[in-house]
Amino acid sequence: MRRIVAAAGVGPDDVVLEIGPGLGSLTLGLLEAADHVVAVEIDSLLAGALPGTVAAHAPGRVAALTVVEADALKITALPRVPTCVVANLPYNVSVPVLLHLLATFGEWQRGLVMVQAEVADRLAAGPGSKTYGIPSVKMSWYAATARVGTVPPSVFWPVPNVDSGLVSIVRRPAPQTSASRAEVFAVIDAAFAQRRKMLRSALAGLTGSSAAASAALEAAGVDPQARGEVLDVTAFARIAEQLPSRA
């Protein structure tokens, strides 16, 4: 827990957004370092117990905690503006939660999340990697990501059957493009829907035909016979600019 807080670089000026605090182990560590922690918890029993846990183990920091009982996938407002996100994310919703937080709360500039090791590899993968896919590209629209550590199952209760990975997130400007994020993400989704397909075939449904897809790809400076896993987010943005629907 202290290793995670240290790796996140949490300091006395930070307002930390924590997702899924559970029993509060990470919350206590964050409260030692941060100015304030906003903890979003979907489980009403756990959300109700967290203030008592802090009162018992860190009585001087009770006022520095705000618990929000809500679904992190649906939350659109927070009681304080976060400067960073630090969380042990639920494995089954980790990628959607991250993308939602990046899209909805633009103020936070950095983060450190613990996710399933396989998910960590996908979040941090670059073009050409076997693990590069939709999560990798969509995350790169918002931020630079890197795998910064591994956490063994033995530190958890109950003990899971998988390793966990730590991923650092540093916000950066979105690619400069005339296409909207929704248009770029639609191209990404189509390109990876069937990984073995050439882009001219994978994007045929989006453009209306394989010929139209080839024309859009060539206009974007992309080989129509290439596959999605070799392209970075700026290339997907160039393709989105050439969609027939934008003409």
Automatic annotation (TrEMBL):
Its EC number is 2.1.1.182. This is Ribosomal RNA small subunit methyltransferase A. It is found in: Cytoplasm. Its main location: cytoplasm. The keyword RNA-binding applies. Belongs to the class I-like SAM-binding methyltransferase superfamily. rRNA adenine N(6)-methyltransferase family. RsmA subfamily. Specifically dimethylates two adjacent adenosines (A1518 and A1519) in the loop of a conserved hairpin near the 3'-end of 16S rRNA in the 30S particle. May play a critical role in biogenesis of 30S subunits. The keyword Nucleotide-binding does not apply. It is an enzyme of class 2 (transferase). InterPro entries: KsgA/Erm, rRNA_Ade_diMease-like_C, rRNA_Ade_Mease_Trfase_CS, rRNA_Ade_methylase_Trfase_N, rRNA_adenine_dimethylase, SAM-dependent_MTases_sf. Keywords: Cytoplasm, Methyltransferase, RNA-binding, rRNA processing, S-adenosyl-L-methionine, Transferase. Pfam families: RrnaAD (PF00398). It catalyses: adenosine(1518)/adenosine(1519) in 16S rRNA + 4 S-adenosyl-L-methionine = N(6)-dimethyladenosine(1518)/N(6)-dimethyladenosine(1519) in 16S rRNA + 4 S-adenosyl-L-homocysteine + 4 H(+). Residues 2-173 form the Ribosomal RNA adenine methylase transferase N-terminal domain. PROSITE patterns: RRNA_A_DIMETH, SAM_RNA_A_N6_MT. S-adenosyl-L-methionine binds at M1, G20, E41, D71, N88.
